[in-house]
Every structure is written in C-alpha cells, then in structure tokens.
Amino acid sequence: MTKKAYKEKEKRNDAKKLQTEMDLPKIPKISQSLIKALYKYKIGDECGLRIQANYIDGINFASSDAQQRGIYFEYVATGQLPRNNEIPQPKLLKSGAFSTDYERINKQVENFKNIMGYLNFTIEQTGYKFTNPKYDGTLDILAHDNSIKSKDINKKRIIIDLKSTGLINDKWSEYGWATESIEEKESLMLQAIHYKMLAKWEWGIEDIPFYFFVFSTKNDWEYKLFKINVDETTMAIHLNNLKTIKTYLDFVMKDGFKAKPKYETCRNCELAITCSSFLSHPPINEVTI
Fold this sequence. Notes:
Blueprint: H1 3-18, H2 32-42, H3 48-56, H4 65-78, H5 100-119, E1 121-126, E2 141-145, H6 153-156, E3 157-165, H7 186-203, E4 210-216, E5 223-227, H8 232-255, H9 263-266
Parallel strand pairs: 3-4
Antiparallel strand pairs: 1-2, 2-3, 4-5
C-alpha cells in the first residue's frame, strides 16, 4: 500500500468512527468475547439474560478483584483508561503503602517498560477500536517494531495484548499460560486469530505480528512473551465460523435470549434483584440406583 493510499484509508477509518448511529435496535458486532459467550450460551453454560444485558443493553458488570488488578496494570503500563473512563485505583494499606498485590503490579509495569525497550517496540496508540461493521475488536496496544527499517508504517505495525494472571504456569485451566500447552488453549488463541483478521481488513496488512505479553500476579518478576503465528487454514476456519456465528446470533436476537439459571452463577449475578429466574439455592438432584 502506498503512503498516499494508506493516509486515505486512515481518513476513511476515522470518518467511520464519527458517523452518527441511527436510533435502531442494537445488533452487536461480533467480538472475540461475544463469540465465547455465545458458545457457552449454546451449550447451556452462560445465561442469555447476562449476554442481553452486557452486549445488547450496554450494562457493564462489576469487575472481580483479579479483573480490577488487570485494569490497573494496563492503565499504569500504557495510560489507557478502562471502558468507564474512570482512573483505576490501587488498594492501599492503612499506612498508605501499596498492598502486596499492587506492589507486585507496579514492579511488573517496570518489567513491561524494560522489555518494550529491549525489543525496540514503541506504542503508537492504545485502545484502538476496529471499524469493521460486523466484527468488533479493541486493541490493548498498537505498536511499532522499530527494528524494521521502513517508511511504510504498516510494515512496522504490531499488536500487543497485555495479560496479568495468576495462572502463568497452569496447564489445565482454560485460561492457563503454561508454555507447553498454550497452542491448545482455544479460548486464548481466538483473540490473536480475530485481531489478525481485523487488521488485514482495516489496514491491508496481510499477517500483522501479534504478541501476548503475560505477567504473573503471584510474584513481581515472572512474565512470558508469546508471538502467535496463524496459518491460512486456521484463518479460513475462523472466517467460516464467524459466518455461522452471525447466523446464530441473528436467530437468537429474533427468538430472544433465554435465562439459563445456575446456582453458582446466579448467586453473584448483578441481575438477581429483578430476575424472575434467579436461583437462591441449588436444585435437588434426583439419583436412581
């Protein structure tokens, strides 16, 4: 892509963000998190009312303590505010010092900045939201690999996704980051596939480098770097899956999301007060022997 064509494409992308949306029923764009939620809904592991509230009605559920630490980490590392635009606050001791968890996070922020310098990566922008009309994605970091000597910005661009986790060496969890099993974690790898696809449509970059920077919350020194390579077959399968998911989403939107109550999820659900399907206790399981 020539420099002139690139600038024109960037202007078109910016213009899309400024377009006024008509007052119509909201049909959500398909993000990697919605893909996971719809799959769990289909197999009965996610409540449709929560999907409706979060993705259709725009209700932001309260973050867990682990999520709050991740939000704080991303803000201190990159300056990117969360979706509510409120500055994340650390937990402090009575003395005013950082709690142990947040002291670790601050040290990991230093590790992040050091590795960015070592790799010669610099941040172009944070929180970039793709403009595709059907498929959604927001980048933690759109960066440049400055070891690539080119005046074409697209040749230098890379995507970095930040993760903070207590499962950095976990083999068995769906969200564990054990190096020897990472390629088997479909829930984790989906993000890389989806964002590479969106980058190709957004900027014409055929195979943008995608990195996970994963930092432990159990100590202040351990972190891992993963560069995710996606072959053409995997990308084609993802695109085909997206078409199927879109068909399924349209059907569910027409039919309406249904409650799928479970005691273990209902007990902490923000919709509990108004939900007629709320389970306040576990059901009786009948067993025949």
